[in-house]
Predict the structure of General stress protein 17M.
Amino acid sequence: MSLIGAQSYAKLLENGVQAIEEVNRLRSSGYTKDNIYVISHDQDRETRIVDAANINEVGLGEEGLFGAIANLFRSRGDALRFKITALGFSSAEATFYEKELDSGKVLVIAKKNPQ
């Protein structure tokens, strides 16, 4: 799925450099840092990309209090699927993206604010 103009946009990328380039492209097309997220199966890698790109991590605002607490006890794969669905994707889409993350890819998601 990669639809600019839709409520949520997602793109799988091979590495962190490509992810940062995609973040910059999204910013130039009108998304703000508060609406762009990077997800990786490797938490350290995800944090490095988020810091380098100066964007948000999926957190309490997106997951809700109970979701955030539950993610502390979930496997990384389950937590990632929950985060992806919290950003507006179906469970089938979340499962697809999480499997791609298993292979080392990075997921960039941009979400527009409801108007």
Observations:
- The helical segments are 16-28, 43-53, 60-63, 65-71, 76-86, 91-102.
- The chain has six helices and three strands.
- Confidence is low (pLDDT under 50) at residues 1-5.
- Residues 8-110 form one domain.
